[in-house]
Amino acid sequence: MELEVVGETGMKKVETYKTQLKDTILMLLSSRSFEEISTVEGKLDLKQNLLARINQALGENVVSRIYFTEFVVQ
Fold it and tell me: How many CB atoms lie within 10 A of CB 55?
């Protein structure tokens, strides 16, 4: 997964909160079932939820987009 970040200060903030962001991402991913993320609509919903939670954890809208570069479901 890659994050599109707004500005240099945004990049620094993401780096500062890296541990909290990983936790936020893993908690959300682990709460979803295969059925929920197996469709395109499910993946788009997941992206929107991730974007909202990441920006909430950062305290401001720093991340503008999320890109799935790999998607493996076990």
Answer: 14
User: 3-state DSSP call for residue 3?
Assistant: strand
Tell me the three state secondary structure of residue 59.
Answer: coil
| Domain that residue 44 falls in | 2-67
pTM (2 d.p.): 0.89
Provide the token pair at 27. Answer: 């908690």
Q: Does the residue 73 lie in any domain?
A: no
pLDDT of residue 12: 95
Residue with tokens 């929107």: 48
Give the 3-state secondary structure of residue 68.
coil
How many domains, in total, are found in the chain? 1
Task: Let me know if residue 27 belongs to a domain.
Answer: yes
Q: How many CB atoms lie within 10 A of CB 51?
A: 17
